[in-house]
Amino acid sequence: MILLEFHNRIVAETLTSRYEAFTESGKAPGVDITIADFDGVLFHLVSGEDKNKITVSVGLKFYHELQQYGVDELMARVYGNRLVEAESGFDCSVLVDLETLGDDAAAVINEVARLRRNCFAAVFEYFFKKYEAKDTDGESAMIHYRDQETMYVSAHKDRVTVVFSTLFSDADDVVIGKVFLQEFKEGRRGNQQAPQVIFSHKDPPAELQDSSALTGDNVGYVTFVLFPRHIQSKVADSTIDLIHTFRDYLHYHIKCSKAYLHQRMRARTASLLKILNRARPESETKERKTATGKTFRRS
């Protein structure tokens, strides 16, 4: 299975190419591009009069929901004095000055390309800290990270629970999704350190019973139960990296599975057609002769 990248590759490659041009000639070419990412996230890279200074902005439909969980403070902590006033139409902007990157260029560019990931991280860090402080007062977060799809996070005495709701475009996706998620259960048998994964179809899990969670044949809920070993500071960043991309990871592999099945079916159909063509009788329009030498054609 393929893990999706945690940064935006186009942002990283664009900044890297500009920095390489700057190191060669002392001046980078201008840039003004808009990039779409998962979950309706948009990036905008633009350089002003000084081409060596590039503003990278990110826009999330759910950014205002993250603000109550400290996303603004997290951005300030991660990006420091590179954080500038947000560009109009976007939620957060970072100024990349190519002249000041120095030896840390690769690390800075990678961190800027992780803007989307760092925005998501705010809600996870908030509840990880509540768990560590044993401040389990029943507070929970419901983030509407996509149209009609939500992410639910809550801290309990012995765990942190994360629930993703997702919509399946057709019945086949539900079947493939169930098979795919079954592998997570099988994987946990071989690795007891993995988090518990629970899939529910049509109806929301117990954590969402009294909420406005959707129900229906095309609705699925995936619950992750994170234990202390997944939340401790040494692995918390890796946990956030992996879990915030789960919804996209799931649907990416569903589409890959369907594409593979279609490819196999087309190959099988082509093979059967070859067999049928070989089994077709030869044309019987050839002249034939009787024992007396007379010729005839079978009608």
How many beta-strand elements? 12
- Which structural class is indicated by helix and strand composition? alpha+beta
Mean pLDDT: 88
Biggest sheet: strands, sense, closure? 5 strands, antiparallel
Key phrases:
five-stranded antiparallel β-sheet, alpha+beta, 2 domains, flat, Yope Regulator, Chain: A, 299 residues, 22% strand, 42% helix
Detailed description of the structure:
With 299 residues, this protein is α+β, with helices and mostly antiparallel strands. It has two domains: 9-119, Yope Regulator, Chain: A (2-Layer Sandwich); 136-256, 2-Layer Sandwich (Yope Regulator, Chain: A), CATH 3.30.1460. It has nine helices and twelve strands. The chain has helices spanning 9-25, 63-66, 71-79, 105-113, 115-132, 171-190, 228-231, 233-244, 246-279; strands at residues 32-36, 42-47, 53-59, 83-84, 92-97, 140-146, 149-155, 160-167, 196-201, 219-226, 288-289, 295-296. The strands form three sheets. It has a five-stranded antiparallel sheet with strand order 1-2-3-5-4. It has a five-stranded antiparallel sheet with strand order 6-7-8-10-9. Strands 11-12 form a two-stranded antiparallel sheet. It is flat. The N and C termini lie far apart (60 Å). 25% of the residues are buried. The model has no long low-confidence stretch (mean pLDDT 88).
